[in-house]
Amino acid sequence: MRNVLAKRIIPCLDVKDGRVVKGVNFVNLRDAGDPVELAAIYDQEGADELVFLDISASVEGRATMVEVVKKTAGEITIPFTVGGGISHVDDMKRILRAGADKIGMNTAAVKNPQLISEGARKFGSQCIVVAIDARFNEAWGEWEVYTHGGRTPSGLRALDWAKEAEKLGAGEILLTSMDADGTKDGFDIRLTRAVSDLVTIPIIASGGAGTKDHFYNVFTEGKADAGLAATIFHYKEIAIPDLKQHLKSRGVEIR
C-alpha cells in the first residue's frame, strides 16, 4: 500500500559544463543560467527539493559537478539529488560527501542493477533514486526504458524495471516521459499512474509540465508524489509560490 505523503514541487537543473541548459525531447539545448544561483533562488521561493542532472558526465563534467554540488550545498537548505555519470559506489560517496542528499542513477543502474542494492546498503534506500526515462513502444503496447540521456533503447519494459528497482532497494523513482519532455502539454498521466499503481516507493513525475493544472492532474489522476519541471520554472512561466497556492486551493496537500 502506498503512503499518501504531502506532494512536493521539484525544479530540475540539467547541468552541462557547469551551466544549466534546457531542451525539448532531450535535444536543442539552450542556456538557462548558473546552477548555484538558480538553486538559491528556488530554495528561497519554496521549492521542496532540487534535482541536478549532469548531462555531460564526461571526466571534465564530473569534476565540474563536484564543485557545483559543493557550492550549492553551501547556499541551500532543501534536499537535493544529483545524477549523471554515477557508475560506482565511490562516485556516490564523492557526490554525497560534496553535500548532495540523494544520488540519481539511470544508465549505470540498468547496466548493473546490483549498484542499486550496493548503494542502498551503504548509504540507505532514502539516498537512492532510480531515474527511468521511458518512451512508449508501439510494438509492445507499453513503455520502454532508454539510457544514455535518452539516446539508447534498453529493451527493458519500464513497468518491470520499476518493480525491480524497488525490490533492489531504490527509495524513490524519478520517472520521465520522453514523449512528453519539454512539450508543455502535460505530464504523461497513463505512464505515471501505471508505475504508481505498481510500486510503494514515491514517484517523482517528470516531463511535460506547462500549466499549474498539469501538476494537479499528475498528483490526483497520476498518483505522483512529486512533480518535477525545468523550463517553466527557469524561464519564470510559473512561480513556485503561485503553483503551491493554486494546488492548495484545489485541495492538494503540499509540503
UniProtKB/TrEMBL annotation:
Catalytic activity: 5-[(5-phospho-1-deoxy-D-ribulos-1-ylimino)methylamino]-1-(5-phospho-beta-D-ribosyl)imidazole-4-carboxamide + L-glutamine = D-erythro-1-(imidazol-4-yl)glycerol 3-phosphate + 5-amino-1-(5-phospho-beta-D-ribosyl)imidazole-4-carboxamide + L-glutamate + H(+)
InterPro entries: Aldolase_TIM, His_biosynth, HisF, IGPS_HisA/HisF, RibuloseP-bd_barrel
Coiled-coil annotated spans: none
Catalytic machinery residues: D14, D133
EC number: 4.3.2.10
The keyword Lyase belongs to this UniProt entry's keyword annotation: yes
Domain of life of the native organism: Bacteria
Record pathway: Amino-acid biosynthesis; L-histidine biosynthesis; L-histidine from 5-phospho-alpha-D-ribose 1-diphosphate: step 5/9
UniProt KW keywords: Amino-acid biosynthesis, Cytoplasm, Histidine biosynthesis, Lyase
Cellular localisation: Cytoplasm
GO MF, one annotated term: lyase activity
Cytoplasm keyword on record: yes
NCBIfam families noted in UniProt: hisF
Role: IGPS catalyzes the conversion of PRFAR and glutamine to IGP, AICAR and glutamate. The HisF subunit catalyzes the cyclization activity that produces IGP and AICAR from PRFAR using the ammonia provided by the HisH subunit.
Protein family according to the UniProt entry: Belongs to the HisA/HisF family.
Quaternary structure annotation from Swiss-Prot or TrEMBL: Heterodimer of HisH and HisF.
Name this protein carries in UniProt: Imidazole glycerol phosphate synthase subunit HisF
Lineage: Bacteria, Bacillati, Bacillota, Bacilli, Bacillales
Gene name, Swiss-Prot/TrEMBL: hisF
